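Sample intake sheet
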Amino acid sequence: MTVTHKIMKLDPDSAKSERVNIKTRVAYALPAFALAVVGIPVYVYIPKFYTDVIGIQIGLLGTLILLVRIFDAITDPAIGFVSDRTRSRFGRRRPYMGVGSILLAIAILFLFNPLNGSPAFQTAWFGSWFFLLFLFWTVVAVPYESLGPELTFDYNERTTLFGIRDGALIAGTLLAASSPALVTAVFGLEATPEGEREKFFWISILFAPMVIVFSWWCILNIKERTSRFPTAAQNPLSSIRQLVSNRPFIILLASYTLAALGSNLPATLILYYVEYVLQSSRADLFLLIYFATGILLLPGWVIIARRIGKKTTWITAMVINTGSFIGVFFLGPGDEWQYGLLVALSGMGFGATVAIPSAMQADVIDYDELQTGTRQEGHYIGVWSVSKKLAAALGVGIGLAVLGAVGYEPNTTQTDQVQFALRVLYAGVPNICNLLALSIALFYPISSQMHERILDAVKDRKKGIRVTDPLTGQLLKANNIDPQ
């Protein structure tokens, strides 16, 4: 297999009816499958592993995670900004993916396999490798996700493309969620500290090489494109001002961030909730039900989105996801089948809440091109990534910190106060977040017809024609930047 060095010119006018072939769809989806290791294992299993097995104090661990993710607020947009302006014969995105995937695999191996030592050493080990893992994840994920909006400008084709990519992400998450139980069964591991260490060793051996192989498969099989116009000004503050002025993006970002917070709290606390509130040992089964339902119904959501639009589809999925989860707050010891049913109902909307916002994000990047005359996917993906990771960090940081404050003690029966806190954090707060996200999403303005008008305006502006902004009615100057 040889590396494709050809860089294609990006023309929204000719691309808006473009279809992406199956080879490109699969190649683009594969890294998402592998990068799922940074989801469930890191946010769900690793915190409990380090608190209950390694012995790090739960509140301190939550604080470390929150601090690392706050640092991501700098690195994510920075990598996006730099990759937008990178010029090489390999493209803007692929060099970062190639190097970053190797470094990310190394970080996974070290984080999942801590050395023995004092509590201070273990805490420093966790903090250092957790920081490096997410730094290298950013180097891979932001350029990788920035490839998507460049592959097609077709409104509905984007829904399919991102549906396949995020379907692969959910499938990878499903594998990651079931991997502890699978590894335990295959190797006959016992529920001892030694057994837990061996379990995470084998999980890291599975996922670390996968990150490298799947990332490089994408690199070798996808042709990058370049903008017909020079990239945005070199001043990062100017780019941030441009982003803030993009009203559809701000609406989408605010709604998505609240919804992501609403989903990350349960993701962080499910092991604690199932063990200490339901008094069940079947958390792995419930995760399997949730993700399997999500991935099985995702193709149906893609079809629905083509018929009724992305916005309506996304809101409908959030309603299903939220409405089903309200009942979880009222469950208690022994309510396993009721919980499993509610998890399955909630999972029905899960796939759409992941994939549809990604396709909508690509559309707001086109609107940015109308406003600025430039393509800066990386900058938008970087800021989007901050919101995703900050929501996840808040889920871990707030959830674990509150549990520590109310008296959580590992591997023992929890007090009524701790159990009530788990109910509120696991079901109450997420539902409030999702209702707020729904109310904001109602104001999102880009439909299929509006997106078509935006692309037409982009084309006319390139020709030197003064156009009217379809969303605001504002008259825009002709684009005075010559094509490359």
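Comment: The chain has 17 helices and four strands. The longest strand covers residues 8-10.
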